[in-house]
Design a protein that fits this description.
This protein has six helices and no strands. It has a domain of about 120 residues: Four Helix Bundle (Hemerythrin (Met), subunit A), CATH 1.20.120. Helix 1 packs across helix 3, helix 2 packs antiparallel against helix 3 and helix 2 packs antiparallel against helix 6. The chain has about 170 residues and is mainly alpha-helical. The radius of gyration is 16 Å and the shape is elongated.
Length: about 170
């Protein structure tokens, strides 16, 4: 049986609270829409870049690595992939809110940003379904779709920054 670490539990709880907040802001229809310039802005208390590095990049790598393994995945690996897919699905809602970075509010107000954030959640849910059914072909396909979402969004919003890998493994100084 897999026991979540305190850090994983905190990340999941933080993601769930933020996703629930985003859901509540979107209304009962569940439709994601960009906040209007005059609407109250609820932002994540850290920068979107920090969320991307610490949450999105970490979760995405588990999906990519699992889909590209040449051997069969263990039950524990499938469980970890499922958990990371949940984190990634919540991350789409989290990054849609913006954060404390200089560009974050503008991104959150952009319909294109909202669309890319929604695509991130959609692809993550495809990865979760693949993990739930232990379908490695579907996992690989969702991982490939995830690459397209990440690269596509970066081409629009951060063309000079890499689309992943920044501090994938934190370095001690």
């Amino acid at each position: 049986m897999y026991v979540a670490t305190k850090r994983t539990t905190k990340i999941l709880a933080f993601s769930a609270v933020l996703a629930a907040s985003a859901y509540g802001l979107a209304g009962v229809t569940g439709a994601a829409s960009a906040p209007s310039a005059g609407s109250p802005h609820v932002a994540v208390p850290i920068s979107t870049n920090a969320v991307m590095v610490a949450l999105v990049d970490q979760a995405a790598h588990e999906i990519w690595e699992g889909g590209n393994r040449t051997r069969n995945l263990t039950d524990r690996e499938w469980l970890l992939i499922e958990q990371h897919a949940v984190q990634l699905a919540a991350s789409g809602s989290v990054v849609s809110l913006g954060g404390t970075g200089k560009a974050d509010r503008g991104w959150a107000l952009s319909p294109a940003w909202q669309e890319w954030s929604g695509k991130l959640s959609t692809v993550a849910l495809e990865a979760k379904k693949a993990a739930d059914t232990k379908n490695k072909v579907a996992l690989r396909a969702s991982g490939d779709a995830l690459v397209n979402v990440c690269v596509g969004c970066h081409m629009v919003f951060k063309p000079d920054a890499p689309s992943e890998g920044i501090m994938h493994q934190p370095q001690l100084h």
